[in-house]
Amino acid sequence: MLPLAKESPASDPGLMARISEPAHAAVVQALAAKGLKEADMAAADLAVTLHGRSVPKVQTTDWGYKSGPNYGKRQVMSAERDIEVEHYDERTLTIEIFDNHTKQQVWSGAKSANTTGKLEAAKLQDAIRSVLASFPAGSKP
């Protein structure tokens, strides 16, 4: 696997320290299940890269007007709008596999999710395993 980035975004300065080893372990484990084993870069047939992207998003939903209090048989409508605002991150994980000798890409896979909060190592590992599940078993360039 190619080395993971050593820098983190300013919004999460500890990100790389927190996820690099669990990400590496998940890749090695998922590819070992496919019949591949980790090797030094010079001797490896394949090179693996991971790319992550997190884009902040805002979604608004206008549900129309709020209902006001009910006075007898008359319903009074409020002029106040019922608008829901949701903040989340659209996160995408892309895994690319290259022939280490020709440097040509031989496979790629991706997974996206809308989520909030810090990136958790366990969820990243699950995403890595999910993406690599579609990598053909025993693949060779």
Write up this protein.
The chain is α+β, with helices and mostly antiparallel strands. The chain has a domain at 15-56 and 92-132. Strand 1 and strand 2 (74-99) form a beta hairpin. The chain has a three-stranded antiparallel beta sheet. Helix 1 (15-32) packs parallel to helix 2. It has two helices and three strands; from the N terminus they run H-E-E-E-H. The protein is elongated and about 80 Å long. The protein has helices at 15-32, 121-132; strands at 46-71, 74-99, 105-115. The longest helix is centred in the first third of the chain and has 18 residues, at 15-32.
Strand and helix map with partners:
Layout: H1 15-32, E1 46-71, E2 74-99, E3 105-115, H2 121-132
Antiparallel strand pairs: 1-2, 2-3
| Low-pLDDT ranges | none
What's the multimeric state? single chain
Work out the radius of gyration. 23 Å
How many angstroms separate the termini? 15 Å
Q: Structural class of the secondary structure composition? A: alpha+beta
Helix and strand pattern? HEEEH
| Average predicted confidence as pLDDT | 82
Number of alpha- plus pi-helical segments: 2
Number of separate strands: 3
Largest sheet, if any?
3 strands, antiparallel
Shape: elongated
Helix content: 10-25%
Q: How large a portion of the residues is in β-strands, by DSSP E?
A: 35-45%
Side by side, the strands of the main sheet go 1-2-3
